[in-house]
Write a structure and sequence with these properties.
The protein is globular. The chain has one domain: Aconitase, domain 4 (Alpha-Beta Barrel), CATH 3.20.19.10. It is α/β, with parallel strands linked by helices. It has a 7-stranded mixed β-sheet with strand order 4-3-2-1-5-6-7. Helix 4 packs across helix 5. It has 8 helices and 7 strands.
Length: 165
């Protein structure tokens, strides 16, 4: 994965990622993507490019359990979120939707908005002109979920392999 960094601070909550006022009115991922981060960074949705990566501080995704907070970023083209730490429910929602979430405080300390980076999930490495940063590689099962595009697609693939579907 290669892209540009979008940098944010601590405690970016689910209502900032995807405003709650749209929870029951916008249903398609494409519609949700148009409102990603609109209250924090009004330019994000119109300027994010496929492959871009969000880098943030502590407790990314805190707040409610709404999965639209992860779905809107993925639909907008975000390829990964790198943070100092994640809210537990957000982390699980992101993986379930096929959005890699990487805990790497060293990268958060150094990377800035606009930096070009490359993320190698299998190797557990983030590469940039400012240095290379390691993170624990994902287990094979999580890599499988991410490659399949999410837990539902992964489960469907596994059931097809076993002849159940």
């Amino acid at each position: 994965m290669k892209g540009k960094v979008w940098k944010y601070g601590d405690n970016i909550n689910t209502d900032v990622l995807f405003p709650g006022k749209y929870t029951y009115t916008l249903m398609s991922p494409e519609e949700m993507a148009k409102h990603a981060l609109e209250d924090l960074d009004p330019d994000f949705a119109s300027q994010v490019k496929p492959g871009d990566v969000i880098v943030a501080g502590r407790n990314f995704g805190c707040g409610s359990s709404r999965e639209q907070a992860a779905a809107c970023l993925k639909a907008a083209g975000v390829q990964a979120v790198v943070a100092r730490s994640f809210a537990r429910i957000y982390y699980r929602n992101a993986i379930n939707l096929g959005l890699p979430v990487i805990q790497c405080p060293e990268a958060v300390d150094v990377l800035e908005k606009g930096d070009e980076i490359e993320v190698d999930l299998a190797a557990g490495e983030i590469r940039s002109s400012k240095g290379n940063f390691s993170f624990p590689p994902f287990p094979d099962s999580v890599i499988g979920i991410l490659k399949a595009g999410g837990l539902i697609a992964y489960t469907r693939e596994k059931l097809k392999e076993k002849g159940v579907l």
